[in-house]
Write the structure tokens for this entry.
Amino acid sequence: MSAVITHPGRAAGTRRELPYPIGHQFHADLLCYRRNLQSVFFTMLMPVLFLVILASIFRNATVGAPGGSIKESVYYVPGLIAYGLITAAFSNLALSVVRNRESGIYKRRRATPLPASVVIASRAALAALTALAITVVMLGIGWAAYGASIPGRTAPAFVLDVVVGAATFCCLGFAVASVIRNVDAVQPVIWATVLPLSFISGIFIATAELPRWLADIGYVFPVHPLAAALLEAYNPHTTGSGLNWGYLAILAAWGVAGLIIAVRRFNWLPRGG
Amino acid sequence: MASVHDELTGAGRAGAASAGPAVIEVRGLRKTYDGIEAVAGIDLEVRAGEVFAFLGPNGAGKTTTVEILEGYRHRTSGDVCVLGADPTQAGRDWRARIGVVLQESWPEEELTAEECLTLYAGYYPAPRPVAETLELVGLTDHRAVRCGRMSGGQRRRLDVALALIGDPELIFLDEPTTGFDPAARQSAWEVIAGLRDLGKTIFLTTHYMEEAERLADRIAVLAAGRIVAEGTAATLGGRDTEASVISFTLPPGVAAADLPPALAECVTRTANGHVEADTTRPLRLVGVLAGWAQARGIDLPDLDVHRPSL
């Protein structure tokens, strides 16, 4: 490329390529995330707090899991990995997407040559990175503090569960963001969905201890298959690879549904309200 | 008597602007929301290098029009051509050539002014230097301040800087100084006046007459979705002392005595509902009249501003 310094883009015959600044946008999104203490607290500290509290309360108890009983402190590790993953990929993503849209940040970007795919891919990459980070943190705490470890034979299943789970909740995050009309509604919607589902999907209370009908409701939604799939990888009673295609299929179905809504309804402009 | 419109289209109008090619061409633009006409048939043309102001009260259709030109909204009918393209069909190449200051938008709160500009610079094929752009809008001393902690005036300068960073040919400014105190407005005007020196074409909306007078080569007064007067700052704004005549016809049932006092005291002639008013500040009076008519739901289809021929 010729060095046009004096008046960029104006020299005759010089036609510069429009950039596709995915790395550039990701760098900025990551910077915004790191500087937003509320986001960091909810995605990185809350799951750790919940794990420490629950595992401490029930440190001597055991709980029923597929194949036999396990220590409750071990049980909570995969459950709260699922919770942390959902917070990072779903809750935090939906909040920031609505915030950026309603404050006019997306609207302003719409007047620039920035493609929508860069905005979406960058935010999804941030969700993936934060989901991965909280997973690694929880893996470490679970192993160091509660002796919860993943056998080598189920490790590949665990990785696949995390990947499918993060992708699914990321799609659902975009979908939920597209139907919420204002920033004030985001937190209530997130808490009203994630919290009850966490209670009936084996995250805070083992599924074995729930009334059957409550557990059955949980089975339909995407929180249970993620928590159960991660538990299967952690559960010492699991024989074989720990891969549960049924759970992954339910998760993927929710992910695809979320993706369809997100793609159809993604909007740059404030929805008002 | 020659109408302002005749004078405008006549040869020899001052300013280099008239020589440039048309950057914005609008014919018969209409926009209807739920049966209500927000824009009721607008024709306009803005030429390269010109500073054009759209002046009108709130609800006159300024933002609707400018957002159609920016490609945000679809029109109900009419022809719109901006930088050679239909804004609703225009692609990334086209957006690299425009700069937009929205009426209301927040920057990325967690980024500093400098980081924010660097981010947006990366969206364009040939951006302006970040430091120079900060300097241009007077934010050099505040470059390390997080956008979320900026004052309203600083944020508005950043808005302008973000609109400039891609080195656009055409800049839209939607009410750039609304809500400013006089000092902030004064410094914003200096920034905008500086854009003219960069050779940019500027489409400005405002409800401050003084702002239009100060900044624009040409002003169109918008009321209830129609252009009711058009002229240069000199002809409309009354910088010369030459009196202008505003004329219009009131609908049956509305008397000249019902006119707002500022207008009523200038009325020189009334006959069969036809009113003429003499003034050296026609723009101010047209604004008063438009607001009054709109509030009452009155249409003034033959509203005109003339100057006695010289």
Chain A is about 70% helix and 5% strand. The first strand of chain A starts at residue 62 and ends at 65.
